[in-house]
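Ligand: adenosine-5'-diphosphate. Inputs:
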Amino acid sequence: MPAGWMRNRNEVGSKVKKDKEQKKNIKMLPYIGYCFRDILRFTPLMLWGKLAVSIVEGVLAVWQPILIADICELALGLEVIDKDVFYRNIIFLCLCIGLPALCSIVTRWTEIYNDCKKESCYGWNMFEHAQKIRLEALEDSEVLDTFQKADAAYSDQMAGSRMLSCIFIMIEAVLICVSTICVVGRFSIWLIPGAVLGFLPHLAISLISEKRRVTVYRAQSGVRRRMQYLWEQFCKKESVKEMRIMGFGEYLKKLWVKANVETMREMERVELKALQLGGLDAVIKNTCYAANIAIALLLMLRGSLAIGQFAACLSAFAVLQNELMKLGDKISEFANYYHYVEEYYDFFRIEEGEDGREEYQPFQQEIALQNVHFRYCGSERDALNGVELNIKKGEHVVIVGVNGSGKTTLSKVLTGAYQVSSGTVCYDGQNVNNLRMAGLYQDVSMVSQNFVHYNFTLRENIGISDLKYMEDDGRFQNIIEVMEMQDLVESIGGLDSQLGREFDGRELSGGEWQKVAIARGLFKDSSLIILDEPTSALDPLMEYDILTKFLELIQGKTSVIISHRVGICRSADKIVVMKEGRVVECGTHEKLQEAGGEYSRIWREQAKWY
Ligand code: ADP
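Predicted complex:
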């Protein structure tokens, strides 16, 4: 993927599509290469272990019929032969039979080794990449889908290492088949056609069936995604409660069943075709097996094949049958794992956002937005449409406006989380596009609308925003008092009590969780704090109380409060009114009331309710 695509978010969706097209042309080699690269990087012992096992098993399988032939020949003329050679061959044959058990122990060990390291290697690899993806990309459903698929591919399937195991076993099986055919061909050239005939059709049939499976599976990816989404609704506690009380469980079930039946029918058709081909394959394979034995028997009766060679042929044909079955199984496993490998590595095709090069210097004067435009990917219109705004250091700004007017988007652009399509966002003249984001984020605190309920202790829930103060009980105390959370802390048994039902902690009400989230935002030592609809779950009296105290506590800090309720506006230094992605009014409560525009209209509308 070319660098910098996230910088132009309008291209996010199309870039992913373009890459998917490119990927089809690239076919499978790069993905296998990525697997090798990562396995060499993370779990090299697994690679070498599997390679050693494949080599040993391959040599043993081919050596076995040769040994059997030699032993039989020697046994028939035992008085005249060198007994040492005979017994040495017997020992080698025992090794041929016994060593595979050791190989399976080594294989199992490589799997355990791999499983133990997967979280810290593949999972961490994903986490690191996810940290660099531009935040606005996460608004793109295709990017999110890629994210989820990669997660499933790595955590459930361990697809890369399993796919490589399949490759080794397939190469090993092909080599064994070819070498076995060579061994029997050395006894008599007439044994070659039957052996090859049993081998090639099986290979072709397995490949055809697998290709069909994969094609249908890929074509179904949209329906499968929908099925998964519906299934998640049956498992999430919020949706389960809602569907039970509102009574739409049956409706969702019907949607799921319909999608399920649709996909299963298609897969059933593919499997039936595979079954027919499999039947044909079995007939060809077994006929060739029987024909091979018959030819070997005939050759022996005619004296062209020694008894020992006949015995070796029987062993060789059995090996051939066994390897062919293995090959068929591994081809289908390979196709399955390859699909997951694609999904895992597709995640790394989502381009990282480019970080700026300049170090952020904490702002002393103002934040200035000039002619800022922002559009979500896939959207037909700008969510921000030429925003002009100045926020002075230490100013308390409240942004109001009807739903969809662009308030939340503005807060994301203000912190540099979303990169503007055009225009500039500058902190004392430092354009956020050029800044190293880690430095800027250190100076900004945010409580978003969809804040997270962390199933951690209360101390962690609050202190996680500024780890250096995690043990500073005085700082916690101060914030708990401002947020009037003393009763809550007492009732749950102190700061170190677990919250949330996930790990048997205390579940909080919506309003209590909201207080915890605001406390988290306040706890962080930052110059700017943004609260996006922070008090929607609180009653108006509590809201007014908390926000007034909040403004007192953050004297000296710059704050931006986004709210659809205008009650807090009287305490603000500046009110910014948003409409259709623009700032339509800006000023104090008195000034805007006098102006009789959008703000006074919203004020009047809301006053009716109180
Ligand atoms: P507000 O916070 O004022 O309710 P938002 O900033 O959330 O408004 O939304 C502004 C506009 O952007 C709306 O038209 C909304 O539909 C659109 N929008 C918000 N989020 C997304 C998204 N993830 N993808 C596409 N459009 C979005």
